[in-house]
Specification:
The complex is a heterodimer of chains A (58) and B (422).
Chain A: H1 2-17, H2 27-57
Chain B: H1 3-24, H2 27-34, H3 38-51, H4 56-80, H5 84-124, H6 130-145, H7 150-163, H8 167-173, H9 178-185, H10 196-209, H11 212-225, H12 232-260, H13 269-279, H14 281-314, H15 328-343, H16 352-378, H17 381-384, H18 391-416
Helix pairs in contact in B: 2-7, 2-11, 2-12, 2-14, 3-10, 3-12, 3-14, 4-10, 4-11, 4-12, 4-16, 5-6, 5-11, 5-14, 5-15, 5-16, 6-15, 7-14, 8-12, 8-14, 10-18, 11-14, 13-14, 14-15, 16-18
Classes of the chains: A mainly alpha (58), B mainly alpha (422).
Chain lengths: 58, 422
């Protein structure tokens, strides 16, 4: 239990340490990150769709 | 000065540069040659068996692709003194950091399983049981890593890189026709037109040339080795030489299978080795030894890439220059990753095909993000100073990265939906 608590605290500490991105949020950076989010969202949708179709076949 | 004095002076200058290179050489060579891992060997063997020498020109195009992507990690590591995982956390925040770290863990572990499968299949040809291969590999890798010095680890890894050159004598032993290689292989052509099968193989070749773990590994390796800004030039040379060697090895594999197995469908490199043994026992044996070495080299680098990344983020000591007592979690995470991946091929009926599919798909979720972050980080002039990307470097690297993202996405999607592009 103590180890799990320590691990959770460590994760919290990491989240706090890196809470604010240090890179200058220029227009190019903002656009790149937004495109990346959309790209990953679409990939996840595709994977979920694949998973559902495979489960239906089974 | 007379002629001999000038000659002596020039020799000394060149020798000094060579000695400096030998000191700095390592991360670039190791990462590039390890790029030809078990999966890579299978891809190249299948390319040669299916299309003969016809796609050698395409492999040559991958030299600048591999170089331009990987040299950015040299600059980033030498200037920031941080690994790729830490750089992403710090620059883009915890969300993108966790996404990259967890994705890296999954894709590294799955790739590691495929390396064990490759190594077991290779030694299986010589009658070595899978359990023995797994135990020997885990012990061997633990001994290499536990020696407590980055320098020693790197030199051992370079020794395994040398063994990877075994495909060169194998290619000479099959007596290929040089005129055929030049005529068919060096002139860009698409044998049979751009069919679905050819397209899939081209994408697989790109996928094996640029893998997510390579970015994380080389940057962490540059940091662990302690390369400074003044070493960047040699680090880039190291990467360039590595990219030439890795593609050359790929071409020699294509020549071997293209000469002896042209027109024979093969599913993996171990099958290719068995078929080659029927024609030329030594060439088949060389192919199997090379496959084992490729898997081992891949496993060495991939497991370290994960442990370095973990150490960077969790704040553990994470250097090969530390003893187990000084960096216990670094070595524990290395061993757990290695041992758990090694167990999978031992499980009867383990879904190995599904794992290979997952590697392709999950790599596609990580690679674009890691590459985009790489370019953005290299454009952070506040951090990178004079080593930030120039306009020309940005144009070249953006073209390469966008092309890789499009092709690797199609590769991943076609792995999920095999009939989509037919």
């Amino acid at each position: 239990m103590r180890t799990i608590n320590q691990f959770i605290n460590k994760i919290r500490e990491i989240n706090q340490r890196y809470a604010k991105p240090k890179v200058e949020m220029s227009r190019a950076v903002k656009i790149s990150l937004a495109v990346l989010r959309v790209y990953l969202f679409l990939l996840v949708v595709l994977m979920v769709y694949k998973f559902i179709t495979v489960m239906n076949v089974l | 000065m007379d002629f001999f004095s000038v000659l002596y002076y020039r020799f000394k200058k060149v020798w000094k540069a060579v000695r400096l290179y030998l000191v700095i050489a390592g991360p670039g060579l190791v990462v590039m040659i390890a790029d030809n891992d078990a999966g890579g060997i299978t891809t190249y063997a299948a390319t040669g068996a299916k299309y003969g020498y016809h796609l050698i020109w395409f492999l040559l195009l991958l030299i600048p692709v591999a170089y331009y992507v990987q040299e950015m990690t040299v600059r980033l590591g030498a200037v920031t003194k941080r690994g790729h995982a830490e750089a992403i956390f710090e620059s883009f925040g915890a969300f993108w950091g966790w996404f990259s770290l967890l994705d890296l863990m999954i894709v590294d572990w799955l790739t590691l399983v495929t390396e064990f499968v490759g190594m077991s299949a290779a030694l299986g040809i010589f009658g070595v049981p899978v359990w023995l291969t797994v135990i020997v590999v885990v012990l061997l890798m633990s001994i290499i890593v536990l020696n407590g010095r980055y320098w020693t680890w790197e030199k051992i890894a370079l020794g395994f890189c040398l063994l990877n050159l075994i495909y060169i004598p194998a290619a000479f032993m099959v007596n290929p026709s040089l005129s055929d290689i030049a005529g068919q292989g060096l002139i860009p052509n698409l044998p049979g037109g751009l069919t679905n099968e050819l397209f899939f193989l081209l994408m697989a070749n790109i996928g094996t040339t640029i893998a997510p773990w390579m970015l994380f590994f080389q940057q962490s390796s540059v940091v662990d080795k302690g390369l400074q800004e003044k070493d960047i030039k040699m680090g880039k040379l190291d990467t360039f030489i590595g990219s030439i060697i890795t593609v050359s090895i790929a071409i020699f594999i294509v020549i071997v299978t293209g000469t002896l197995l042209h027109g024979t469908p093969i599913d993996d490199a171990a099958t290719a080795a068995k078929l080659l043994m029927k024609t030329n026992h030594y060439v088949g044996a060389f192919m199997a030894i090379g496959l084992f070495d490729a898997g081992l080299l891949g496993a060495i680098c991939i497991s370290l890439a994960s442990s370095w990344a973990f150490g960077e983020i969790f704040g553990w000591a994470h250097s090969l220059n530390t003893k187990v007592k000084e960096a216990p979690w670094f070595y524990v995470s290395f061993f757990i990753t290695l041992a758990t991946a090694g167990v999978v091929p031992l499980i009867p009926g383990a879904p190995l095909v599904l794992i290979t599919l997952f590697v392709q798909v999950i790599a596609v979720t990580l690679l674009p993000a890691a590459l985009v972050f790489l370019i953005l980080l290299l454009n952070d002039k506040k951090t990178m100073g004079e080593y930030a990307n120039t306009r020309l470097q940005n144009i070249v690297s953006t073209i390469i990265v966008v092309s890789i993202i499009i092709l690797s996405t199609m590769y991943g999607v076609s792995a999920l939906f095999p009939n989509l592009f037919q």
